[in-house]
UniProtKB/TrEMBL annotation:
Keyword Hydrolase: yes
PANTHER family: GLYCEROPHOSPHODIESTER PHOSPHODIESTERASE GDPD5-RELATED (PTHR43620:SF7), GLYCEROPHOSPHORYL DIESTER PHOSPHODIESTERASE (PTHR43620)
Family statement: Belongs to the glycerophosphoryl diester phosphodiesterase family.
Catalytic activity: a sn-glycero-3-phosphodiester + H2O = an alcohol + sn-glycerol 3-phosphate + H(+)
Protein name listed in UniProt: glycerophosphodiester phosphodiesterase
Amino acid sequence: MIRLILTLLLVLAGAPAVAQTASPEPLPDRLVIAHRGASAERPEHTRAAYLLAIEQGADVIEPDLVITRDGVLVVRHENEISETTDVAERPEFADRRRAATIEGRAVTGWFTEDFTLAELKTLRTRERLPALRPASAVFGGEEPILTFQEVLDLAADATRRTGRVIGVAPELKHPAHFAALGLPLEQALVEVLRANDLTSAEAPILVQCFEVGALETLDDSIDTRLLQLISPVGGPADRPELSYADMITDEGLRRVAGYADAIGVEATLVLPRGADNRLRPPTDLVARAHAAGLKVIAWTFRPEALFLPEDFRRGDPASPAYASTPGDLAGYAAAAWAAGLDGVFTDLIPPVVATRP
């Protein structure tokens, strides 16, 4: 009772009963981005994967965005969801299976644009690479598909809980495909970002896309930072006259800098490998991109031997389990940081955080 009276007196006297919360620690200059969450250890794009990544020190979590029939952004690697959900085992949705052409590629399965959000929420997620990541596969069937809003809420809550800003790097998947269906991803994204006051250049958001038009549209609409994804082969699906190789010439980089703030490149464009799969000296791409005013982030750093350069593989090559054997991801990450990268997309967080300069 005495404690209660003292507390009331302090409030009446105008003294703060609770200390003000300090501002969260801002994002660092060199980012560790959890690629679909801690996806080497939990099924990708699940709450468990994102929370584990944040706990392990990731600065940014990455959701791939597709859209539902009723116009809600949801988080899946692709709009075809048979690999990452239990939809194929759900008899009530058997008649939704169909063939489609996505960016010139024939695909058969179940597509998010054929489902409402309520229907998708009845599905359960699963590990996309169960043979390679059996330890993650045991967590399959536990979680529903997340919306983009739920990922933003998760990041905001983690920011408050950890005392450091947790960023979000959404990737727009196949925007031209969805636009042709009357489901423009850009419009849906802008609406969600505006509703969450995340459209400024200072917002902890980095929007990615392999296509050019979507980023140009966003550049005209919001100030949120944008990242042009670049592969070693091919070109943007919406610009058949343009190759990714053109985009990383000096002139190409200057053009990208006209609408984007960064490029996200496949790691071999910075850390090339020889015919023996061993690392060669870094290219000059980072220096040239920096000269054009662009940050450079590389993808995707994974722990298994299947994905690593020969220099960092471990285990017996003759073993049937060799492809999934963990290698020296820390060594590979250290080489990436030494090449001057501004960020790394990774499936396994701790070794990349530990080696960051």
